[in-house]
Known about the structure:
Chain A is α/β, with parallel strands linked by helices. Chain A contains 9 helices and 8 strands.
Amino acid sequence: MAQVIQVPTLNDTAYDFERLFAIWSQVNSYSEDVRFDFSHCDFLRPNAVAFLGGLARLIGWRFGSVEFDWGTCTNSAVMANLCQNGFAGTFGHSTSAWTGNSIPYREDEIQNMDGITDYLTESWLGRKWVHVSPLLRDAIVGHMWEIYSNAFEHSGSEIGVFSCGQHFRRNNELILSVVDFGQGIPAKVRNFLSSDPRAEQLTAASCLRWAFQSGNSTCTDDIARGLGLDLLRKFIRLNQGKLEVYSNNGYVIIDKNGDRYENRGISFEGTLVYITLRCDENLYSLKGE
Amino acid sequence: MIQRLNEEIKHMKLTIKDMIGPRCIIKEDGQRVYDAIHDALIRRETVVLDFTGVSQFASPFFNFAIGQLLKDIKEANLRSLLQIENLNETGTMVVERVIENAAKYHGDKDYRKIVDDILEQQAKESE
């Protein structure tokens, strides 16, 4: 008999992320069949959509079966959103995605450079809700690529990377969430430093702080790296956006007020990146524009 | 794709859009460029990389294409031998950061020192 997971209303506050990770924990300790029930869900942000999609693939990869019980999704706005962004169609519903405020749900098992950059260029930024020059659009895509590059190169995720976004007209915000179910940045940093037994004492927040410093990388192939997260951080701060990363039990938020690194009470195995860009062209600038 | 401009003075010019395409973002493409130019630079030949028509850039490409050249070519020599043309503002910013990062990179990492530094920061935060 399948375990039934109640999907609650999931927004993007710290509490909502904790609820998402609690679902991961519930599923992680149960490796058989799972059914997602939407009876109590009145709203799902893209972070939740990307996370649930990835979680479903993780269960499948572990030879469990997953069912999204669309009959329980009685909130018409939630159902319309999940149909519009292609999530419902991906997981057994008969509708096809259509263009609206949603940015499609996307799964990439391997690093598909053109597919992902086309997604960012056309589906995320190219929909006329952010009025940016082609030069700036390409700069944003390059910075977002750093997230995907990190996920594919460092996470060790066996099932790939999951993305979803949305444009919120009311707040004039553009959101992108990228999730992997790899080992997580703190675990990777501790493993990298494991020749020193004290590495086990490093907190998740400390590991994240180290990983975000320019030039720091866990790669051991003798090629200098470690710029991606720093480049992304500088861009986000320059343009008054917001970057949040949840990885294991670590959390970092980067916005116009600076960087804050925290240890959280709940953990998940993987990394979730949540980016908020404000759709005000005056906030976006390159030096030469 | 690779054009010998003048055999006498040993110039090489790569048109990156023809060789890689309009996106220079992944390390595999960076490695292709590195493989094409490394030996010429070691022979102290001038290499020109023309980025006309390339619009998207990310650090993995430049880490492999250019950053790793600094393993056996000094920064000053690289800057005099490698000519980068028609690179847009974003690409210029990324490549400059990559060269700066690679120039101060030390392959032999002191893991104990890294742990010391993180623990010191951690202790400060818990005070």
